[in-house]
């Protein structure tokens, strides 16, 4: 078991090093057993209106849970064991020494075993994700299942490589002229301590497991604090991990689930606890900024950003508008990678078949967005549902206070879930000067088509936006090589990656494990990256000892 | 030239990876030309009472300098060009784009060329170091010459490896069932911006060049802000670097020297400037703590610590006392690695020839310290001179207010420099309970022999001290394997390395390039390490771009 896990880790690391396509866990639901889907659905349904089983509950002080399905607009009724902060910390502290002393090889093998166990529950996790986040089934399956496992594997493999970078022991020999001075040295990776991983409501496993597995591979025990409205997917993951650790004779304190409620949050108390040394966070900027200021903590954040599209010149406008509409509609614009502001010159754009005016571009995007939402084969599956009421209200309000609405947000018919909370993107034409309208994050299905002086102006606005407000993606459509170079230089200088001329099956939203760094860490959208060496090395400290004779 | 530099970098990286002994630049003065020493001395003497030549002075607003030789207790009279902060930043900003666009290979080759040029001035740098820091000639030569160059090379080689870790471009191909989706991707290491490197008075090059070369290899232009009393050694280094860059057609803004005075410091203004993104600092904890709190900066610190010796049981007490006396006396205890507190059980220690009482241990250490200071062949060369008056006064005051002085600090005769400011270590016996006496940093030649309940008590005090106040080294003398394991575990848990049973030519003070990590970065003595991958990777950001078709 151990050897094969290490081989798989090596393979994953080579893929990561080469930035090539690689899927450690198949992402196609058809690759699984024929009855896997039905069994997953059954398991999900059994968990409804019930106490969640499989998690360590010793020392719990009650059972809590308040998740609501965005597709059903009904509570799930699932209850999870809740713990005092002191109980969580105390269990973590007593597990820390054992976990630190567990060899890197064993840690790595156990963590791969955890992912294998998680993979057996991908369908159940998919339904759990659907009914907490509002993602469509297929996105729920991919994002919370194989893609999340691959991102976790990335942490394990980068972690394993960094931890084994230097020899454990050496004899250091220095010639001193008449004799050799020999020192026996060892080098230890010392874990920083307890790791707190704070999840978000929209991607409860994909955004949680990279930090969780990075902390664990580097010897830090972890407390996972999910969003109170998106617990079930990660609860299944943690339960499987606790089972694997228990079978290996390790205490449940190696990884714990810390559930709370919106009314009684425990995140600050956990984050500020002196024994918590590492914090991983995905969520809004205000809380992320607060976490980053805590002293004596190593903090990894993915916060909000404002993603831009620079529309300069295109070959085939229909293909471009279709791609943009999909990118903006996928999971109703609730992806951190979704575009928000589309910058278009006042004079319009060149295409292979002549120019399109600004108004024609606006109309083209609006038509593509509405067409997708109304397409009975595409709409519901692409848009999914709106995770929470606040987002739904933001869409309504943004539309109602704008003069330039080119496509109104509409409800999307969902035959399977007639009560689903849905909203297609509102598309709003706005002048660049009206920065109060577009120059801030509008989370959800909201697209501004911003009229600029020219493409250079578009670029300067996009770059400034990324530098000031953060950006996780930028998309550029251009047939002009010089301009494309300018865009790459300027956006990269704001630590923002650029995707050029995506059409067809390539979407700006998708960041592939082993190949695309997710969040650069260099602008206000976050201070860390899935997954570079930094993401690993900030979690432990090298200490070398020397011995004479 | 370029190929050979890259080969040398590879060789240095392999040494670093294997943690083996390696000297890229010979550390033995005899390895240099016969007249090198005389020429170096001449060059140093020519610089006295003169404007320093070789540094870019365009746009300077005057000439300043106030260095004083601790050996002569006379001003050196060397003046350096001074600049406004705006001028420094503006030159740096205009150089940044060029330097970022310079390929990693070219940057690496140029930086190695800089070190080769610096090596030609090792003897001059040695005299410059002597007469600013008070180090003996031999330490000045080693620390500011070959050892500093090796530490710089470590940054170059680790930097080169990290920057070339991933391919620059790949074709990413994902099978989508009926077709392949292909994206052309590139990956860029984007420099964070302007780097400020703040030097200290005692090791003006050794502590400056690791951060300087790490920032430069990763594409960040740098401003070096030396301590106003220790400018000359690093001025020579920066002058050689500016010459190499100028010959390559690069502007002086790639590396600048920002000289100030004690009365009119410019460090805060530089550090707080919005364009300064990276700060490297060596010095006192208060200023280091302030730098660490600055927002939107990446800060690397080496601050103060309190280093412990745990004396449990020994084979040969004379060898141990001799080694301790040397470690405490080397450069008059002004090394960040020097021991301060020697913990000894009240019942004394076991030796191969019976027990020694606590009082006998105190007397043994005191005798060894005084014997070394009074040894005409060893004293002056080991102790050097006291860099500044404050340290000299601290030694006097600490002695005068203590009841337990076992060895008084004495002046050390220096035949070559009769006016040298010297002080041998004061050795003070103190009870563990008297924490006001020993539990804080006493920079300089001050040693406390702290009486503890037993060795377990010694360890708990040393570990707590490291965790609370920081520690860069810890020394343990023990013949008990179980106890040694406890010491390693407990001190490592406070992120402090341990050196066991050093006698003879092995001294706790010495941290060898390519093998010993210097400062762990995990306790209050600093937040960074010479040189792990983190030391490099925090200085730049990976950004990946994708292109269709």
Key attributes of the depicted protein:
homodimer; about 550 residues; seven-stranded mixed sheet; alpha/beta; globular
Sequence-ordered SSE layout with sheet pairings:
Two copies of one chain form a homodimer.
Chain A: H1 2-18, H2 36-47, E1 62-64, E2 68-69, E3 74-75, E4 80-82, H3 85-101, H4 104-119, H5 122-133, H6 137-144, H7 146-163, E5 169-175, E6 180-191, E7 194-198, H8 209-217, E8 222-225, H9 232-247, E9 255-257, H10 267-272, E10 276-282, H11 285-293, E11 298-302, E12 308-311, H12 317-329, E13 341-345, E14 349-351, E15 354-356, H13 358-374, H14 379-383, H15 389-400, E16 405-407, E17 426-431, H16 435-438, E18 446-452, H17 455-469, E19 474-477, H18 481-493, E20 498-500, H19 533-537, E21 540-548
Parallel strand pairs in A: 7-8, 7-10, 8-9, 10-11, 12-13, 12-19, 13-18, 17-18, 19-20
Antiparallel strand pairs in A: 1-4, 2-3, 5-6, 6-21, 14-15, 16-17
Helix pairs in contact in A: 1-4, 1-7, 2-5, 4-7, 4-9, 5-6, 5-9, 6-7, 7-8, 12-13, 17-18
Gist?
The first copy, chain A, is of the alpha/beta class and 549 residues long. Helices cover 41% and strands 18% of the residues of chain A.
| Arithmetic mean pLDDT of chain A | 97
Kindly report the spatial arrangement of strands forming the biggest sheet of chain A. 16-17-18-13-12-19-20
- What is the oligomeric state here? homodimer
Number of DSSP strands of chain A?
Answer: 21
Largest sheet of chain A: 7 strands, mixed
Based on secondary structure, the structural category of chain A is alpha/beta
Distance between the termini of chain A: 38 Å
Rounded to the nearest angstrom, the radius of gyration of chain A is: 24 Å
Percent of residues in β-strands of chain A: 15-25%
């Amino acid at each position: 078991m151990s050897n094969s896990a290490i081989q798989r880790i090596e393979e994953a690391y080579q893929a990561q090093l080469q930035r090539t396509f690689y899927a450690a866990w198949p992402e196609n639901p058809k690759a699984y057993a024929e009855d896997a889907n039905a069994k997953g659905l059954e398991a999900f349904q059994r968990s409804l209106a019930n106490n969640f089983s499989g998690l360590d509950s010793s020392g719990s002080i009650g059972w809590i849970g308040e998740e609501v399905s965005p597709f059903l607009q009904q509570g799930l009724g699932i209850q999870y064991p809740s713990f005092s902060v002191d109980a969580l910390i105390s269990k973590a502290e007593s597990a820390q020494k054992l976990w630190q002393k567990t060899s890197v090889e064993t840690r790595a093998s156990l963590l791969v075993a955890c992912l294998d166990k998680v993979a057996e529950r991908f369908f159940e996790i998919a339904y759990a994700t659907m009914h907490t986040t509002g993602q469509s089934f297929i996105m729920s399956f991919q994002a919370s299942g194989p893609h999340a496992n691959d991102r976790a594997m990335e942490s394990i493999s980068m972690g394993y490589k960094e931890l084994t970078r230097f020899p454990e022991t050496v004899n250091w020999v220095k010639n001193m002229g008449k004799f050799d001075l020999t020192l026996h040295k060892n080098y230890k990776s010392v874990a920083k301590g307890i790791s707190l991983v704070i999840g978000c409501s929209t991607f409860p496993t994909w955004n949680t497991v990279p930090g969780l597995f990075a902390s664990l591979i580097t010897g830090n025990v972890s407390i996972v604090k999910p969003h109170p409205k998106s617990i079930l997917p990660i609860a299944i993951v943690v339960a499987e991990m606790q089972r694997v650790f228990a079978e290996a004779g390790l205490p449940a304190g190696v990884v714990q689930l810390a559930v709370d409620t919106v009314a009684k949050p425990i995140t600050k108390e956990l984050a500020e606890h002196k024994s918590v040394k590492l914090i991983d966070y995905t969520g809004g900027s205000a809380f992320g900024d607060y976490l980053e200021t805590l002293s004596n903590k190593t903090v990894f954040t993915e916060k909000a950003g404002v993603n831009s599209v620079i529309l300069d010149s295109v070959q085939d406008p229909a293909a471009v508008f279709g791609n943009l509409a999909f990118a903006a509609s996928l999971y109703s614009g609730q992806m951190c990678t979704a575009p928000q502001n589309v910058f278009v010159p006042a004079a319009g754009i060149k295409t292979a078949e002549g120019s399109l005016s600004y108004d024609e571009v606006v109309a083209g995007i609006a038509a593509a967005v509405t067409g997708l939402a109304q397409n009975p084969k595409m709409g519901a599956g692409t848009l999914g549902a709106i995770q929470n009421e606040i987002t739904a209200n933001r869409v309504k309000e943004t539309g109602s206070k704008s003069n330039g609405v080119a496509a109104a947000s509409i409800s999307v018919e969902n035959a399977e879930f007639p009560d689903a909370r849905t909203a297609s993107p509102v598309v709003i034409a706005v002048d660049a000067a009206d920065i109060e309208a577009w120059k801030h994050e509008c989370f959800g299905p909201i697209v501004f088509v911003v009229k600029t002086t020219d493409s250079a102006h578009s670029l300067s606005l996009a770059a400034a936006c990324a530098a000031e407000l953060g950006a996780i993606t930028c998309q550029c459509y251009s047939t002009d090589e010089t301009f494309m170079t300018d865009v790459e230089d300027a956006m990269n200088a704001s630590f923002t990656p650029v995707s050029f001329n995506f059409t067809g099956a390539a979407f700006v939203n998708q960041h592939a494990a082993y190949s695309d760094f997710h969040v650069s860490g260099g602008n206000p959208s976050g201070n860390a990256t899935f997954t570079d060496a930094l993401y690993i090395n900030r979690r432990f400290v090298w200490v070398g000892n020397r011995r004479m004779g």
